[in-house]
Sequence to fold (478 residues):
Amino acid sequence: MSESMLKFVGTPQAFPGKRAPKLRAEDFREIADRYAPPAAEDQAGRCSQCGVPYCSVHCPLHNHIPDWLRLTAEGRLREAFELSNSTSTMPEICGRICPQDRLCEGNCVIEFSGHGAVTIGSVEKFITDTAWEEGWVEPLVVGAPRGQSVGIIGAGPAGLSAAEYLRGYGYDVHVYDRYDRAGGLLTYGIPGFKLEKHVVTRRVNRLKEGGIVFHDNFEVGRDASMTELRQRHDSVLIATGVYKPRAIKAPGVGSNGVVDALDFLTASNRKGFGDAVPAFDDGSLDAAGKHVVVIGGGDTAMDCVRTAVRQGAASVKCLYRRDRANMPGSQREVANAEEEGVEFVWLSAPEAFLSGDSVTGVKASRMRLGAPDASGRRAPEIDPEGGFDVPADLVIKALGFDAEDLPTMFGVPELGVTRWGTLLVGKTLMTSLDGVFAAGDIVRGASLVVWAIRDGRDVSTAMHQWLKAKATSARVAA
Fold:
């Protein structure tokens, strides 16, 4: 065992320092810098190099975490980057936005021993950011031309990941996306204080330089039918994600000033790019000077409350129907939000939205936790002791996302879906349409970016096998 490892007893856990809450609430920059090299090496050296690396087991990508931690601790950063990059197409993005407290770090053996988990995400960010600065990130290696093309619908993490692998196999790859910039939720859904946009842009540019063709502002069903895309390409991948906001059934939900989370976040991110955003400029999607209430307890809700703070909201409250211990969002994000002045109102749910010409408040029910539901979580139920009113000038609904009606949108009613509207796929991730595959949230439902990257990797392997068989059949037939 290297002398640089097993330092978790003498070296305490230390994350990169965060800027003071008042300072970071003034801009959309990431809230913490990365490690200086000595600190990264020291923190990586806390790894116990355990025989069964639970961190890797609980990483959807099964990254070789103990190995690149050891290389980092030994100062062998380029090797650490190459190993990290071998299993992930976006390691610096995962290092920033993965909920490590629920995945790798939450299952670290050192965490169980009471010494504090290895700061895996922060080290991962350090490794890859250093690689970009030092020029170690190589251009995309394109495989020998195969004479076959692939169309990918959706430029989010699943689509981008699959595009990279398929281009590496030698296919011509075209990516179609309805937005004017690639990246999906990485670009328009996640705020800059968690993921600065140049981090996404440089990944996309690398794919473009590798010969992947991006068709922006392209909607399937408007600019081309699914049938036309299938005729244009040898295989098609649907990686659209899920964008339909979950509805709240309550009186007044249609009032002015009650908005969807993605509309709010997209407007904010577009302003960060310098775009003209009429709904922001007229105040509809701008929290400045307003009393803001966000409904929901997931990561999207955390993005909304922290964005509202940065826009200069007069106050920001988050209503969630369960307690803190049972919320789905990252506990680190909750802590960051609290530091920045967000008030959490646990065990509360909207009963109605009060309004005149615009929303004036939320009539909320007090909740309590009852018996466990089908998922094993205690189900929230209305507390008979009564409710309360919360003043609000802007209410943001952040209850998650469902699948859009793709069979209708794409003009292919024979495209199979589940009862939740997600696409139905077989073991090879092929849909009911021959040669049309699907991956990411449109298959598994709203999930994590790291799972979308994993799905993009898996589906590219399945498509490669199918395309090879198709080419072989064509040669035999000829």
User: Anything to note?
Assistant: The first strand starts at residue 149 and ends at 153. The two ends are 59 Å apart (CA to CA). The mean pLDDT is 96. The CA atoms of residues 93 and 199 lie 7 Å apart.
